[in-house]
Amino acid sequence: MRRYERFYALDIRQGDAREEGQRDRDRILYTSALRRLAGITQVVSPAEGHVFHNRLTHSLEVAQIGRRLAESLIRKHDKALVNAMGGVDPDVIEAAALAHDLGHPPFGHVVEEELNKLLDCPETNGNPKPSDGFEGNAQSFRIVTKLAVRYPKYRGGQYIRGLNLTRATLNAVLKYPRLRPTRDRVDNKQDGQRRQKWGVYDSEQDYLRWAREALASEDHNRSAEAELMDWADDVAYAVHDLEDFYRAALIPLDRLVKDKEGERRQFLQDWAFPRLEKKRTKPMTTEYRDRLEERFNNLFDVLPIGEPYEGTHSQRFRLRHSTSGFINDYVNAVKLTWTATQDGKRVEVNEELRDEVEMLKELTWRYVIKNPSLATQQHGQRRVIRELFEMYMEAAHSGNWTMFPEGYAEEFKLTEVNAQDKDQGKTRIVVDLIASMTEQQALKMHQKLTGISLGSVLDPTAL
How far apart are the first and last CA of the chain? Predict the structure, then answer.
């Protein structure tokens, strides 16, 4: 099938009995880009001392939930319907889930925004031409198609890049299968929120075009497998981050359970509803608010948590039993449909349970992400990345490549020879370097380059 074709027609190793989706999943599992995620923030830093999820544990859980979603749908639906969706392969969805956060930079979304701002500003990016910006999803796609190394430079006269994944897996990775919107790329059929989201840099548009060839020519929507991976991502974030921050005494689940007219109502009226209103493209009706409140109340009226977390055997059992029940409900909330919905989706999620997941995610925003202690940390994180960017940019554009790991110095030399726009090529290499660091690597390199802590000449530079 065309969906299992690879960009490079390379021979499969003799004796390799794996299916194509299994091969893709294994290639991603063994990349250093995946291991790096152990040192990347999920919501708060993995160096906090509390056992929080990091981007790696989050990705592993998304992969597990995604696989169970696929297996459940294959059991529930007629094979003809599954084939009509373009296929639902558990290995492909697991592979995409493992890959979906590879492009997350150090410190998460706050640095994603900072890098994008730096690249969009001619004063900092050193180039007056429009840039491709920075986006975590696009960086993930760039890693699996171009930056990850699996082959020698040349084979059969071709310059080999990336992991050479199948079309199926690349489409499953593409949550937003389009280039960055510009004036000449605006699709009036898409609403404003969708136009803001994108998943591929111009430099990888050939891979995007090739991956989408397996779909209908007019199909601009993400694949069913990408939709399932995205739902698995939402579920993992909503449930496991909630568990983390109840254990850490940041989300007061006990007060939300017991204080219906106080803590619970205040959360809904003062925080959740106003924020959800801003995220929607249409105003929230009174009927919709009432439905959300009813779902939220039903959830917390039966949640078996009545006191702050202290780690007793009973509390641990009740918490684990509750989160397991949530995930089971959300896995079973999904079905496939013969006819695409109005927004092009072939995967339907029970509307009430989708609302429930959305409300659980709002708890993390209210009690953790908007916590002043986290905001002060993020201010410092932005500064570290901004100054790293400025120092590396100066070195890159002045030809002082000895500051860079040898692999990146090689890329600068190739850019000098092959790139049509050498300045933009060098800037993208700088961003690739910063985005490939763990948080501890970024902090140590910043200290070294600013003279705060000079480190040692024996410190490794290769990433």
Answer: 37
CATH topology assigned to domain 2-10+18-118+128-212: Hypothetical protein af1432 (1.10.3210)
Q: What's the CA gap between 368 and 348, in Å, rounded?
A: 30
pLDDT, tens digit, for every residue of 105-123? 999 889 999 999 999 886 6
Pairing outcome for strands 158-159 and 334-336? unpaired
Q: How many C-beta neighbours within 10 Å does residue 267 have?
A: 21
Q: Where are the domains of the chain?
A: 2-10+18-118+128-212, 235-372, 373-450
Contacts 24+ apart (CB under 8 A), 75-82: 76/335, 77/335, 77/336, 81/336, 81/338, 82/336
pTM across the whole model? 0.91
Residues in CB range of 450: below 8 A, 6 or more apart:
387, 391
Say yes or no to pLDDT of 181 above 60.
yes
Alpha-carbon distance 55 to 76, whole Å? 31
pLDDT digits (tens, 9 = 90+) for 331-340: 999 998 866 5
> What's the distance, CA 455 to chain centroid?
32
